[in-house]
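Hi! If you just cloned this repository, the fastest way to understand the data is to look at a raw example. We've pasted two of them here, unedited. The first protein comes first, obviously.
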Amino acid sequence: MSCLGDLLYMNTNYEMDIYRALQWYIPAATLGDAYSRYIIGNIFFYGEGVEQDYREALHWYIGIIDSKEDDCYQSSALEKIMEIYYKGLGVKKDVEKALFYHEIYANCGHHSEKKYIADMYYEGIEVPRQAEKYIPLYEEMSEFEDGEAEYRLADIYYHGIGVKADEKKALDWYERAFFDSTNRIKGHIFLEGKSKNIKSEFTSFVEMFEYYNSKANSGEAKAQYRLSGLYYHGYGPSVDTDLGYTWLLTAAENGDIDAQYELAERYHYGEGVEESLDIAFQWYMKAAEQGDEMAQFQIGEFYYHGDGTVVPIDYEKAIFWYRKVSNLEIAEFRIHDIFEERNR
């Protein structure tokens, strides 16, 4: 039945007839066909040949989710459901319902979305702040070595945000965040501290701060990088972004690869400094030349897009840097796109 609907809805050899198409799609959808439900939802969502009706579209999209029989169209249907509830399209705006479906969407393989949901509950953006929601989500993100989520967990336990303050847990999460940030591609190398003569276990943040402060002032670049993090995140005497930046820059100038990459990101996105693609490119290049794979990918991106006035589009140089990123699938996609573009 859905095939007959397609002939009337999409086949250019037939005159489009939405009403007749619906006569075939609706019975198929009623029998549980997810594809038909999705098409009907789109017809009403976009108002294709019928009066736009978000509520009717929502009915058919939710039918796909509730059936749990075919996940082929679930992600696309969930995106529409989220948009309807987040924006209040044809229904009362309901952020909590939107987040409910957003969590389902995240569990359909879109793991990075969990951090957005956690941030919504953490910040209390249009929903009550709920520790029982955001802590498990941040913990799930830590399984994917998300340093930002781990820094947030360290903050939560250090400052007692929604939970009882627990310095030991804060220390654990803070250290994990450092290791995940240091090894953005390769993951945990927990013995890094021993191999670089940097202490990897502390009993308090005071001890941690004193240790890195001493090492940083003696000229150790890695300690300078970690001391900058303590100042940025307020695990030293207080939050001090100026000292955080000073130590970050010092560590980068002394050749610390992680400091170079973080400094590049800060200038790239204007995080605590004035945005500058030119300065970002320079620090990405320094980290890339030392072998940082994410930096190598970013250099490839600069040449692929020809960002701003920094560098012109140069596909040869883009391919050169993408090929250095052996285990980033998106780099392979970029190379494929370049060859496709050339063959047009």
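Ok, and the second one:
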Amino acid sequence: MHCCLRLPLIVLVFSITFLMAGSPSPTFAKASLPPLASTYQGTVHNTTFDHTATLALTPLVQNQGEISGNAIIGPGLIGSGPFTGTIMSNRSVSFTDVSTDGSNVTIFFTGSLYRDGSLSGRYTIPSTGEEGTWQVIPSPTVDLQTLTIQPLQPLLANSNPTFRATIRNNGSAASGNFNIRWIADEKVFDGGHNSIPAGTVDTHDYIWSNITAGQHTLTFIANFDHTIAETTTRNNLATLTFTVRSDVTISIVGSSSVRLSVPFLTQIGSAGIPGSGSNNCGPASVAMSINFFGNSVTVNDAAIAIRGFNNAGNTITDFKSTATTNYLARYGLHPVSVSTYSEVQSELALHHPVIILVNNNAYRYLSPPPYSPVTGDWFRTEHIIVVTGYDGTNVYVNDPERYTANYVIPVATFKSAVSTTRFSSTTNWDAESVSH
């Protein structure tokens, strides 16, 4: 008895001696709590009666070390109901399921979270004496988010503009086909949309026939009828409110001069080959336009995203490709089709840089020359640049074959350069702006 009573005294004296020795107090890093998925699916096996059923934990909500949700147990076994529990830093899990399926049982689950994301362990039902095992894995998820709605043409009264909704699947699985809804000034138009793969972006268009002058509201809802299960539906809707005037487009074209500060990037050496542009005029132009909105991507980043690689074997790229549209969407941006000089002016006035295809032979002999030193293979009938501004006399461009920004081209020369590519005409230019 005396020995047992003296043991706390010995420990206390040791602790006091340690602190008085002047050594720093020990500190311990707080162990982090492992994150859980929002839904799980798997099986539960009742070893008492040798019966197996499905088990789903959905939606599982984690608040630091506390967890809650609903346990859904398949046919043949009882106990479905809400659960609450904990997850520890050592990855152990325990939760209690109070049934609401009429069975009036309480089930105690214990187990562990494994490195592959699965959960498994044992369970008991004290009131019935039953027990068993359980195992679940994270369920594939779908999360459709409507990013933006944007017009593809300037908005004129009595015209038929196309509006484009951009949708991203943030989930880990393909969405499957789903239904969509457009609401144009309270008029409802329903339709369908094909499956969107996990982590990718797609678009859905709506043509507003004979749009009138005045204020309008356009809403797009992905999966409006909830035909597919999602982790959340709070981000399925987007609304655009805009005004169409009878005398002008929605774009501001009255400005006599617009200059945008578009960060410059050169394509020269962008694939690791000194002095070579490596067919990267398109990726460079896309990267410059993205960076105008406060980002910091490189030509290499854009080339790999758009083309899939960036090396000596580079092929030409299309700045209107699906890959480019998807890349812009990563930064909350989207393209708007541009076909004429007035539309270029309109988009620049809205602070939207314009990516455009030119025949740079048209400004080959300007003074100062566009490129130095001038080499013949730098001139071609198809070259991609960014328009950064205009005034009454000149157009200002970031040409990625140069080393500096804002090359000055007279308006007439610029129009000739844009109109004489294989894919353009005087009334239909190959161009698009980048908008947020």
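That's it. A detail worth noticing about the second one: The first strand starts at residue 40 and ends at 46.
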